[in-house]
Amino acid sequence: MSKEKKIVCFCLDVTEDDILNSIKEGYDYIETLKRFTGACMGPCQGKFCMVNLVSILAKELGKNPDEMNVPTVRPPVKPVFLGALAASEK
What we know:
mainly alpha, 4 helices, two-stranded antiparallel ribbon, 2 strands, single chain, Arc Repressor Mutant, subunit A
């Protein structure tokens, strides 16, 4: 019987095991965990996976998810094609 693969970040195919192993390696702050695993850095920018990442980290640290410092969403809030930026007039 094989172990079921639990995906946390569908954009970049980051699994729960990837997150748990990273936390064990010392990446126990949400920003460093994101940077090390790539979770929340795909096209959705964490809109779908941030809640999963925060809940896993909080559980591993024995904290309430509300206590976690969730990063601020920074612009652009929605994706913009580079061509659209290049074509804009100043």
